[in-house]
Amino acid sequence: MEAAATAARESHVSGIAGALSPVWLQYFRILGKPVLDAAELCEMLFAGQRADGFVPDHPASERAALPLQGVVLGKLLQVNRKSAGFLAPALRQAFECAMAQHRYLYTHCDPAEEGLLAIRFPEEDGFGNAAGYEFPAPARPSIQDPFFNTCLSWSNESLIAVGHFLGEDVLEAMQWHELTIHAMNEKLWDDKAGQYCAFDLNRDCAVPLYSLAAILPLAAEIPTQEQAEKMLHVLKNDSWTLAGRDLLLYPSCRPGAPVADFRTGWRGPVWQALNWMLYEGLLRYDFKEMAQALRKNTLHAISEYGFYDSYDPRLDNPGNPGIGSPASPAAAALALHWLLK
Question: Which domains does the chain have, with CATH numbers?
């Protein structure tokens, strides 16, 4: 990785200088920390959590944090399984925080009471710029977003594993998990498109997606094997990959989509975290060849260009394709997590 640091110092950074990455990416810093106490772990994952369990994306904000905390706890347990006893006190406190967070979301963000949570603000979709979303009434649950619900479902699954390790009762998490998976497949699966869509509760209609949010339910093992095969066909045959700069990775938006701009959020950059999620999903359905190629290409991009959260994949944009900081702690921790596999 020394070459990455050198490349970062010597080359021009393209894209948006100092571009802001989503808050949730910082959760992955935890995977790079050898020792965590309960206070540090909970501060990193649940900063500003209210007494009712709500976790904001920023302290004092009314926007809900993307519910990836349970996933990070599950990965933390996984990579420290041999010495997990030392983590138990911290994991127990964080488990209780995460359960309270999920309980709040299922109580207050599921107006249809179907286990499919609706976001209230654009920022709650993970990036805040998904095309086609409308929020006519502030702070009212409006869009049943597949990425938000994928993170929630994956976190439910992870909390079940962490709870079993701690000897905690996980029946509530198991019920949430089954309900959300069922609702996503019943309501958000678009069989014709071979991917997931969003649903607008105000307009009572499905919202087609151009972003990887439509594919990433693979990471939480939400689709059936048959559905996953259709999604794999979409990934292989629908012009998703970009061969620019030898990245050969998946951008956050389908390259040919009318909304693609390759500069922000869901509109086109290659995000290391999203490619890691996709990698995890491909492995879950035994798509090993594509998964290993994705891992190899991601680590190559990091080695070649630096520890950026995202990259501009366009061939016609000269200089280093890294967007934002060339020394992102979250990117470095996630890369280390991949290297240790």
Answer: 1-21+239-341 (no CATH), 23-225 (1.50.10.10)
